[in-house]
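From the pipeline queue, job 12 of 40. The input is one protein chain; the requested action is below.

Action: predict structure.
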Amino acid sequence: MNKQNLFESSLKRLGLLSVDKKSVDAINEDTYKQYIKVLYLPEGYELTVDFAVYVTLQPSLFFVAPNQFLKIENCGKEAGYFIFYNRDFYCIQIHDQEVACDGLLFNNINNMPLVKVSKEEAAYINHLFRQMEGEFQINDTSQEEMIRTYLKQLLIKATRLWKKQHLDKTIVEQNNDLEFFRKFTLLVDGHYKEKHTVADYADVLSMAPKTITHKFKRLNLPQPNEVIKNRIILEAKRLLVHTTLTAKEIAHELGYEDPAYFSRQFQIKTGESPSGFRTKYLESHTAALHD
C-alpha cells in the first residue's frame, strides 16, 4: 500500500485505497478482515457480503463490520474507493455524542449494508473522498482530525440515505423509538454470545421485557427476540462456512451448553441442520467456482 494512503498514530489506523482490478485481490484477502470497512463502488461491481450477492446498478456505498465476510467478485469500468479503519480511530460508542452516525449502517436489523447513491448525492460523496485523498498528501498536526471529520460526514450522509431507503417514513419520524432500536441492536451485536433472551437485555437496560417488546411493536419491526435469534444464527452461519469448527464447538462458542438445543434452534430458523447448511453452502460455492 502507498504510505500516503495510510494514517497511523499510536493504535489508531485508517487507510484509503482505490478499488479496481489491480487492487481487488488484495482487498479480498484477510488483511482487512479485522477492520471496519466502507466501500464506494460505481456501476458494474459485483460483491458478496456474508450470504448476499449485490450488483451495483448505480454508485453505491457498502458498510462492512469486522466480523462480516466480504469478497468483490467483479469490478466495473470505473474505480471505486475502499476505506478501512479500526475502532481506535473511530468508534460508534465513543464518538456517538458528536455526530448523528450510528449502528444503522453496520450489522443492522435487516442485515442490509447497502446505500444507493443518486447522481445528485454522488457529487457530494465524491467530494468527500477527494478531500480525504488530499489529506494524505498533507503533513500537518490536524491531519487526523480532518480525516475523521470527512469520515463522520460520510457516515452522517449515508445514515440519512439508509433511513430513507430502508425504513418507513413513519418509523424515521419516531426518533426516540428509533434511537432505542439502534441502541438495542448495538447491545445485541456486542453480547449475543452470552445473552440469549429479551430479559437478559432488559436487565442491562433497566426496564421490563414487555417495555422493549412494545417499543419494537410501535416501530413495526421484528420483535426483539427475533433480533437476538437472527444475530446468533447469522454468526453460526459464518462459523459454519468460514471455519472448520464442528456444530458442537460452534454451539459452545455462541454460549449454548446444550449443542442439541442449539441445533434445533438453528433448524427452526433456517430449515436445515448445521451440518446440512454447511454441506449445501460449500457444494454450491464449489460448483460456482467451476462454472
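Job complete. Confidence is low (pLDDT under 50) at residues 97-101.
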